[in-house]
Design a protein that fits this description.
14 helices; about 475 residues; membrane; disordered N terminus; amino-acid transport; symport; mainly alpha; Amino acid/polyamine transporter I; two-stranded antiparallel sheet
Length: about 475
């Protein structure tokens, strides 16, 4: 191995041999010399649900309103099927070669490096980390919207409806950023399992409240709003109808985006049984649960508001009673997004820190850890100055960008469209073909390639719709 730091491939971060002679036989260590993984079906499902039932669920009523009663649920079902199928292919790539004893791939880019290699690993790394970066921006915007909703609700009721309660989202984005700076100091992915469980519970809480309010609104009006083809021409122009429909597809794609961190989640699972077996069960369970919620929330939201379904479902119910229930729902969104932000950002943190360690192995600033005693905890917290500075800078950057571009629906659509095809479909399909040595031009090879090409076209048109939507929103805002 070349020990010249300048020659290190930054994507080959985790292929570091660990020599532990006596400890490898211990019950405390796995086959790769690392501490035994302790993840289970429950914790893996919690990570996935935290990642999937994110702020994307709030835009589904708007998405169904653009597509209508037929295309809206159909597109959601298709995305759930494609996501489950390609995620099952991706789980097979956690180990290179034998599914029980092959070399572990600790991250998504590790899997691409060991199976595909070449320029594809660089493309994958760039797309993955840009996607995660974009998701963190989207979550910051969504959290600030919920904070503002709570503040405006209380202001509205305290003034008896006389004060319009206009306010800026910037202070709330800063508050969210400060909380993430603190939580970002948790060193590793496997140490935030408790945060994922709390976040998953919160996601069910606000989704359930949104669903319940939608059912109550439909029951009160005794009518199901909406049409088979979605928002009507007249309410919007024909061109707007097309662009908004494409943007809606991007929003639905965003709602199912978790493949980007699937390998990282799988790396927390203990074995036996084989990690791929547990991960497939977790994926099936999580996607079944989330799709049920998505269908209910999207459909009931559309039935409640019709063509005027809001971009954020909970904001559509206004500030009327029971306003305290909406406050609870928005508080649950905030707590969930606090955890989801960490789930998506931990892979970026690990990438940069391990690259820096390999690049400057003698740096005191990067390597040195200080033991900070914490009352009530047996082991001290290990403070690393590079981790403190770099992660704080990252959170500050996402916060500032969110303040400059606070358009939730447009950001969601762009992120979903750009990340869906390469990360959810292309790389899993290509790695699976290579891993299983599927013969070129065989029926299975052709079907997998056709699936990839179809999803590419979907991503392209959804991305175009979302970019146009963002441009129009920015123009009218300015």
């Amino acid at each position: 191995m070349d020990h010249n730091p300048a020659a290190v491939n930054p994507f080959q971060l985790f292929d570091v041999p660990v020599v532990i002679s006596s400890q490898n036989d211990s019950h405390c260590f796995d086959d790769d010399g690392r501490l035994k993984r302790t993840g289970t079906l429950c914790t893996a499902s919690a990570h996935i649900i935290t990642a999937v039932i994110g702020s994307g669920v709030l835009s589904l009523a708007w998405a169904v309103a653009q597509l209508g009663w037929i295309a809206g649920p159909a597109v959601m079902f298709l995305f759930s099927f494609v996501t489950y199928y390609t995620s099952s292919l991706l789980t097979e790539c956690y180990r290179t070669g034998d599914p029980t004893s092959g070399k572990r791939n600790y991250t998504y880019t590790d899997a691409v490096l060991s199976i595909l290699g070449g320029y594809e690993v660089k493309a994958c790394g760039l797309i993955q980390y840009l996607n995660l970066f974009g998701i963190s921006i989207g979550y910051t915007i969504a959290a600030s919207i919920s904070m503002m909703a709570i503040k405006r609700s209380n202001c509205f009721h305290n003034s008896g409806g006389k004060n319009p309660c206009h306010m800026s989202s910037n202070p709330y984005m800063i508050m969210f950023g400060v909380s993430e700076i603190l939580l970002s100091q948790i060193p590793d992915f496997d140490q935030i399992w408790w945060l994922s469980i709390v976040a998953a519970v919160m996601s069910f809480t606000y989704s359930g409240i949104g669903l319940g309010l939608g059912i109550a609104k439909v029951a009160a009006s005794e009518t199901l709003k909406g049409s088979l083809t979605g928002i009507s021409i007249g309410t919007v122009t024909q061109a707007q109808k097309i662009w908004r429909s494409l943007q809606a597809i991007g929003n639905i794609a965003f709602a199912y985006s978790f493949s980007v961190i699937l390998i990282e989640i799988q790396d927390t699972i203990k074995s036996p049984p084989a990690e791929a077996k547990t991960m497939k069960k977790a994926t099936k369970l999580s996607i079944a649960i989330t799709t049920t919620f998505y269908m209910l929330c999207g459909s009931m939201g559309y039935a409640s508001f019709g063509d005027f379904a809001p971009g954020n479902l909970l904001t559509g119910f206004g500030f009327f009673n029971p306003f305290w229930l909406l406050d609870i729902a928005n508080a649950a969104i905030i707590i969930h997004l606090v955890g989801a932000y960490q789930v998506f950002c931990q892979p970026i943190f690990a990438f940069v820190e391990k690259w820096a360690t390999r690049r400057w192995p003698e740096s005191y600033f990067i390597i040195k850890e200080f033991n900070i005693p914490i009352p009530g905890r047996r082991s001290p917290y290990k403070l690393n100055m590079f981790r403190l500075v770099w992660r704080t800078g990252f959170v500050m950057t996402t916060t500032v960008i969110s303040m400059l571009f606070p358009f939730f629906n447009d950001v969601v659509g762009i992120i979903g469209a750009l990340g869906f095809w390469p990360l959810t479909v292309y790389f899993p399909v290509e790695m699976y073909i290579q891993q299983k040595k599927i013969c070129k031009w065989s029926s299975r090879w052709i079907c997998l390639k056709m699936l990839s090409m179809a999803c590419l076209m979907v991503s392209v048109v959804a991305g175009a719709g979302s970019v146009v939507g963002a441009f129009l929103t920015l123009r009218f805002t300015i």
